[in-house]
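Narrative of accomplishments. A recurring question from our advisory board has been how the design workflow behaves on a single, concrete structure rather than in aggregate. To address it, we present the structure tokens for one chain from the evaluation set, followed by the sequence designed for it. No filtering or post-editing was applied between the two.
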């Protein structure tokens, strides 16, 4: 994902996805600010490629940030307000992420501690449904 920057802005999702995620945000902002009335086809395709890559990245990253907020003591209502999601959507996204991460073996250990996940579930008053 951290490939060297291209000379030309990407017009394909596959190329945009190779850009560092934070650089994607900067590129999308810069592209939108520099846009002129009646943009050409490449300008439109660049914006589509950049924005699609940002959405794809954020979709993968958001559950980790939800987990981080839960670790810090945030409740589902707080996270729902921060994300604009329903609390049930927050919970669904986090549980799906946590299920994968607790089963992911890295050097003989799970990526995320299952005991910590269960503690968060207990704090939230959730039954452990696995």
């Amino acid at each position: 994902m951290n490939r060297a920057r291209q000379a030309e802005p990407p017009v394909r999702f596959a190329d945009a996805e190779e850009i560092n995620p934070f650089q994607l945000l900067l590129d999308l902002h810069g592209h939108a600010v520099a846009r002129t009335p009646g943009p050409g086809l490449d300008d439109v395709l660049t914006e589509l490629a950049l924005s699609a890559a940002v959405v794809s990245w954020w979709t993968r990253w958001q559950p980790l940030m939800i987990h981080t907020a839960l670790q810090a003591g945030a409740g589902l209502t707080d996270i729902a307000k921060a994300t604009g999601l329903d609390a049930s959507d927050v919970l669904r996204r986090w549980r799906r992420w946590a299920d994968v991460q607790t089963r992911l073996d890295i050097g003989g250990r799970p990526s995320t501690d299952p005991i910590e996940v269960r503690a968060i579930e207990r704090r939230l008053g959730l039954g452990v449904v696995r």
